[in-house]
Structure formats: structure tokens, C-alpha cells
Amino acid sequence: MKRIFIALKIEPGTKLAEILQSLKSLAAEEKVNWVDPVNIHITLAFLGDTEEDRIKIAGLLLKRECSGFGEFTFMLKGAGLFRNFRDPRIIWIGIAEPEALIRLNEKIATGLRDTGFRIEDRPFKPHITIGRIKLLKKPEILKSFLDKYGEVEIQEVNVREVILFESILRPSGPIYKPIGRFTLAS
Q: pLDDT per residue over 141-161, tens digit each?
């Protein structure tokens, strides 16, 4: 059994890397679990603990659904919080014009449900998580960061493949190991 999820890998460009470093420096005294830049991704579906035979089924499904979808691009834009400033949980970077990404997610989610996988039923809100907040002593620091970057275009992302990852949890942080890559080429 492996803990798996389906995602798009995001390689941080210069501007995203600078923004991440700036925020980490500003919030150095805060209790935030920062996402390692090598782990930055957009989750399309989290499947959790999955038996090997079901992982093979997921791989076949992804091969079928991704093949011929076509490569696309989108812009990382803006920053925000899940929850609110009274109870902040996740710091995220947003996605501008995510229509192709939403269509891809719907196609994969439908295929997963049709083959008996249980996935979240809430609306897909494409984003990249950059930090998980444990405790904020000075929320005004985060507010000023979000005010500064709330609408800033950060980086164009070219999407060529979907990756099936195994998530290996470690005390030092998770390791995301690709176990399948599925091209979107037409």
C-alpha cells in the first residue's frame, strides 16, 4: 500500500523563489511549515493509502485521460490564505485563467470516480500551497505580504504532463516520489 496523489509539478522560477524566500524571512519568527521548493505542485486528486492493484488502475486511467489532452500554460498570480486572518491555515499562490487546468481536473476526477476511487467532492480551487500555518504571532506581517503580492503575476507554467506521486511521510518533511508520468501531448 502506498499513499498517493495526482499532481502537476511546478518548478519555481526566479521570481517565485524570491517571493518564497522573502516571505520566509519576513515570517521567520512565526510557526509555519514551509513547503520545500522541490515539492511545489498543484494537487489534482489525493487518493491516500492505495493498494498496488488500484495504483495500476489509476495509472491506466491517467494514461487514457491525459493522452491527447494537449499541453497548455497558465500564470501563477497572486497570494492568499485559506480560512481567514482570525484562523489562517494555508498560505497559497493562485492561478490566473485556470480553465484548461479545471477541464483536466474534471476529466481525471470523472475517470477516477467511474473506476471506483473515492475523491473529495468539493469544488476544485487550483493553487500551490507554500506554507501551513501553525501559529501567527504577528499576522500583520502576513497581511502586508498578501497586500503586496495579492495580484502580482509571478510565473508562467507550461504543463506537459501529469504525475502520479507517492507521498512518503518523514519527520523532516514529506518526500514526493514520482511513480508514473503521463504526457498531455496531442
A: 888 888 888 889 999 999 999
Q: Which residue has the cell 524566500?
A: 21
Residue 149 bears catalytic tag: no
DSSP state of 97: S
Which candidate in 55, 127, 163, 180 is catalytic? 127
Say if strands 31-34 and 87-96 run parallel, antiparallel, or are unpaired. Answer: unpaired
**Catalytic: 41?**
yes
Torsion of CA 53, 56, 58, 59, to 10 degrees: 170
pLDDT tens digits, residue range 36-59? Answer: 999 999 999 999 999 999 999 999
- Could you give the CA distance from residue 15 to residue 8 in angstroms, rounded to a whole number? 19
Domain boundaries, the chain: 2-183
Q: Which member of 4, 41, 92, 128 is catalytic?
A: 41
Fold adopted by 2-183: Cyclic Phosphodiesterase; Chain: A, (3.90.1140)
